[in-house]
Write a structure and sequence with these properties.
The chain is α+β, with helices and mostly antiparallel strands. It has a single domain, classed as PH-domain like. 23% of the residues lie in helices and 41% in strands. It is built from 3 helices and 8 strands; from the N terminus they run βααβββββββα. The longest helix is centred in the N-terminal third of the chain and has 18 residues.
Length: 176
């Protein structure tokens, strides 16, 4: 399977996840994802402020939420910046096009990798409020886990991004 590229994606940030999703019911995983989207869009001054757990019965208690989601969160300094997200069977990369000096006074546009998540360390993905794709991933050494939120430019892009991540979860991965 080849890489899929998504343009004009806003990186909303991440929240610390202190408890594994392994033993959580699917509905509770979704609610944690929605809470992460809500928390990060509020913190990053997004123009869209979703209401958590809209139009359905809440399955997770406040105590459970506090036990699963840590206090640490990180939002980008320039929350309005748009990124390119590249998804392969092996990784999710968040990249930024930047101008770099090239030959004296000339500038060239280069793609700079801002974050990379190994697909074998991604444990959960969700499509939230039709335009947000969130996922839970551990860092490279496997010691810390966080929920990451990406805001797509439209519903179609978000649906496609979510479907690609789901597909790569199901495909066998070969690591060299």
């Amino acid at each position: 399977m080849e890489a899929k590229v998504f343009q004009m994606v806003r990186y909303c940030g991440c929240v610390e996840i202190v408890e594994s999703f392994a033993n959580l019911e699917d509905s509770k995983k979704e609610e944690v994802a929605e809470f992460s989207v809500y928390t990060l869009t509020r913190a990053s001054n997004s123009n869209f402020f979703p209401s958590p757990c809209v139009n359905r019965t809440v399955q997770i208690t406040e105590e459970e939420l506090k036990r699963i989601v840590g206090r640490k969160k990180a939002v980008p300094e320039k929350s309005e910046e748009l990124y390119t997200v590249i998804i392969t069977p092996y990784s999710i990369k968040i990249c930024k096009k930047e101008k770099k000096p090239f030959h004296y006074s000339e500038l060239e546009t280069v793609m700079t990798e801002k974050a990379k998540f190994s697909m074998n360390l991604v444990s959960f993905a969700s499509l939230d409020f039709d335009i947000f794709v969130s996922f839970v991933a551990k860092n490279d050494d496997g010691t810390h886990r966080a929920g990451y939120v990406l805001e797509c430019s439209d519903n179609d892009s978000a649906g496609q991004m979510f479907d690609v991540i789901k597909q790569f979860f199901k495909e066998p991965r070969i690591y060299f």
